[in-house]
Amino acid sequence: MSGSLARSTLLYLPAQMFGPMFLFATTVIWTHLLDPASFGVVTYVVAAQELTALVGLAWWSIFVVRFQGRFADAQGERFRSMDARVVACSMVLQAMLAAPTLLSIGVAPRPGIFFATTAFLATRTAVGHYSEWARAEHRIGIYTIAQLAAPIIGSALSILAVLAFGPDAAIALVAITVGQAIGLAAVMRGLRVWPRLGTFDAELFARARRYGLPLLASGMLSWIAVNGIRLVIEAKDGIVGVGIFSAGWGLGQRLAVVLAMLCTAAAFPLAVRRLDSGDRKGALRQVSINGALMIGLLAPALVGVILLSRPLVHLLIAEQFRNATALILPIAMATSAARMLRVHTGDQMGLLLERTASMTVFNLLDAVLTISGGCVGVVYAGVIGAALGSLAGTFLGSAAAIVFAVRELGLPVPKAALLIVFGATAAMAAVLANLPAPTTPSGLGGQILIGAFVYGAVVFLGLPNLWRSPASIAPRWRRQDSL
Questions:
Q1: Cα–Cα–Cα angle for 252, 65, 223, nearest 5°?
Q2: Cα separation, 340 vs 205, whole angstroms
Q3: Under 8 Å CB-to-CB from 192, ≥6 apart: which residues?
């Protein structure tokens, strides 16, 4: 079972990793091609699609992933017909939400930008849904195509289109949409799903609503916590302020998510398997190991970004975005790292032990504290204050959730292993802080390698069994926790 799980994790890894990596690179390039206002519109519409998809289709996609297998044989056509109807209705809803999406950041929904936004929202939402359908059927190849179509084809087309036709947000969005449409056509063909109106099924709708809507509330609160600060900035500084803020905010958030994905793909299913077999302690320990491994990846990366942010930004980001990005990038990464740790420890404990109400409570707390902190910060210190205020709110909300998971749900804390991670991070920071600031890409890459070597050497000395497998260090952690 563990071998199969590891194999599936590796097969899914390209879809989980390469998409965010291409989006990271594309965002960097956009800062050189788009002015702050156009950049702000594009990045906000991309972020807003996560919310419009939640409202329109995500509740059904969640149901598909969980229950599609039960209808695969005798009732397969019934399920597919209902799926076609839900997707068709969602596409209409995406068109209805295009104008409010633009108006929320003060952009008039003129025909060009309205059409581009509508097409972007509809194709991206449909691709996301059918990628979940492919995942439910364990069609990894089709899932990978769905996940990579927009980041690779769409992003490349957006860069070419802006170079050819000028720095316009509508042009960039239309080009991305073409890439998404190509991916959508390929995925629908692979799944043998064709556009049609389908048939409404009241029983399936009721079941999907009961299962998906509670989780939808948590998803919407998470979106507000991550992206709501953009609306606060728009209200004070306009769409240009959103653009200046979004470069560092988007890059920092995405960097933390990419790193978190390295150690989260297989952990939760393994914890579920152990709990179902009667090994409750082993299940909780698996969540603890996952959290510690995530800290082991995020802590040195965050410290490295803090120390190397200015030369990194100077080498990668366009001049008009540099000053703000150099300050916001590490703040954004710290904010996302705190949230990722909460999601993959506190939230996973809630799902594992069927305490999902706690997830909603802490998502609400995260949203309220993050937006409140961002509002206070933007009033006193502009976009930098907004980032700092959001970090403070997210940190408090995440800390509360993790404390609850430890004290009330029994999440183990591998104290000795965490001390080794923090000690290795401190050693790496001491070495990097005493090196001259890099001024070339090769110099920056060299310092990153030096930092990685120092960190890895200290961790290896403290946890020599780490190279074998994450599970192999659990007995050592259990022994050391009593120290």
A1: 30
A2: 32
A3: none
- 172: which residues sit within 8 A by CB, 6+ positions away? 30, 34, 38, 42, 158, 161, 162
- For the ranges 50-59, 92-101, 389-398, the lowest mean pLDDT is seen at 50-59
**Torsion 350-352-353-354 (CA) sign:** positive
Helical residues (DSSP H) of 137-201, grouped into ranges: 140-148, 155-165, 169-191
Confidence (pLDDT) at 306: 95
Using an 8 Å Cβ cutoff, are 394 and 338 in contact? yes
Q: How far apart are CA 401 and CA 359, in angstroms?
A: 8
Tokens of 368: 């309220």
Global model pTM greater than 0.85: no
- Residue 422 contacts by C-beta under 8 Å, 6 or more apart in sequence? 299
One-letter amino acid of 441: P
Give, in order, the Cα–Cα distances in Å from 167 to each of 83, 209, 264, 309, 449: 38, 42, 37, 27, 36
What's at 164, amino acid-wise? Answer: A
Q: In whole angstroms, what is the distance from residue 173 CA to residue 250 CA?
A: 17
Buried b (16+ CB within 10 A) or exposed e, 128-155: bbbbbbbbbeebeebbbbbbbbbbbbbb
Highest-scoring range by mean pLDDT, 2-6, 61-65, 224-228, 260-264? 224-228
Q: Where are the domains of the chain?
A: 1-200, 220-478
Cα angle 136, 137, 138; round to 5: 90
Q: Calculate the dihedral angle through the C-alpha atoms of 234, 237, 239, 241, rounding to the nearest 10 degrees.
A: -110
Length of the chain: 483
SS3 35: coil
- Whether 385 contacts 427, CB under 8 Å: no
Give the tokens for residue 415.
């104290």
The amino acid present at 157, given as its one-letter code, is L
The token pair at 50 is 């996560």
Q: Within 13 Å, how many C-alpha atoms sit on residue 438's CB side?
A: 21
Q: Which residues have a Cβ under 8 Å from the Cβ of 245 and sit 6 or more positions away?
A: 40, 229, 230, 233, 324, 328, 383, 386, 387
| 413 has pLDDT over 70 | yes
Which amino acid is residue 52, in one-letter code? Answer: T
Position 29, amino acid: I
Of the CA atoms within 13 Å of residue 197, those in its CB half-sphere come to 2
**Residue among 318, 249, 328, 287 at smallest CA distance from 414:** 287
Contact 75, 201 (CB under 8 A): no
Average pLDDT, stretch 78-85?
Answer: 86
**Which two tokens mark 158?**
């957006």
